[in-house]
Amino acid sequence: MIHLSLCTISFRHHLVSMPELATFAARAGLDGIELWAAHARSLRNQPALSGRWLKAMGLQVSMLSDYLPFSGPAKDGQTTLTQLCEMANHWDAQKLRTFAGQKASADTSALELQELVSRLKDYCAQAHESGCNLLIETHPNTQADSIQATLDLINAVDHPALKVNLDVLHIWEAHEDPIKAWHLMAPYIHHLHFKNISKRQHLAAFAPANVYSAAGSREGMVPLFEGAYDFATFIQTLPQDRVHSASLEWFGHNPQAIIAEDCHQIRRVQTGRLCEA
After folding, report:
1. Residues 6+ apart with CB under 8 A from 79
2. What pLDDT, on a 0 to 100 scale, did the predictor assign at position 277?
3. One short Pfam family name for this protein (predicted)?
4. Which of 16, 19, 178, 218 has its CA 20 to 30 A from that of 9?
């Protein structure tokens, strides 16, 4: 079973309210919402919008997504994390997504890695005290840019609050097998990101500088089952004896139409009826 969410970041360039997104999510057959922390911060002046409010609509916030700092004063990161934990409590969420730095694992010196691990340990301890888990995302140009680098980081931090958000496409981008990644990291994977691309040469479309820009290229971004990676096989491979939490991370145009159709097709994959008329 897959507990499926939309990402509010898909609507970062759209004038859409949270009640409108929640209504859409419920009607599209989604189970939850992955709330971008930038959006959560802007919603703090509307306290009636909360986890309890979403629950009444049959939804929940599956994860808050942000970017904790791994350089600069430690106090700044602690302050950011304190705010994240407070927002997570407001939205009845326990998962906080971040990136493991901004440097590829192969380019990270031993000292830099030691400092990143130390900061992650502190973040994990702080999150744990607030009842939250910290999920590092598998992503290029971070310390979690491959299966082995991610496992090494988990072992180095060695804290029960450290989990993984497995971005399936980014593992494939690293020329590794996402199914193998799942089996090797299954105890730590608490969330999945689903997105696809038409061809490998278009993967740069997901580079942060491009994807967050309103004027950025969307070339190559395609619905989940029309891309270069075989998501049908990945989804069918997931064990049926546990609930899998996943988000449709769509960055292209027409987000409502694409997200609704991808959700519909995922449900069909789960019942062996993909793309039936």
Report:
1. none
2. 41
3. AP_endonuc_2
4. 178
Distance of CA 137 to the CA centre of its chain: 7
What is the rounded CA–CA span in Å between residue 74 and residue 119?
8
Q: Give the model confidence (pLDDT) of 21-44 as tens digits.
A: 999 999 999 999 999 999 999 999
| Tokens at 146, concatenated | 């491959």
The values of phi and psi at residue 174, to 5°, are: -80, 10
Residue 139 token pair: 């992503």
Residue 274 · residue 225 · CB < 8 Å = yes
Backbone angles phi, psi at 232, to 5 degrees: -60, -45
pTM above 0.90, yes or no: yes
Q: Do 163 and 135 contact (CB within 8 A), yes or no?
A: yes
**Residue 3 among the catalytic residues:** no
The Cα–Cα gap between 172 and 89 comes to 34
Phi first, then psi, for residue 241 (nearest 5°) are -95, 15
Alpha-carbon gap, residue 256 to 105, rounded angstroms:
35
Dihedral class, residue 79 (left if φ above 0, else alpha if ψ from -120 to 50, else beta):
alpha
Instruction: State the Cα–Cα distance between residues 207 and 170, nearest whole angstrom.
Output: 11
Asked if 144 contacts 136 with a C-beta cutoff of 8 angstroms, the reply is yes
Q: What's the pLDDT band for 276 if we cut at 50, 70, 90?
A: very low
Which entry of 90, 139, 191, 193 is annotated as an active-site residue?
A: 139
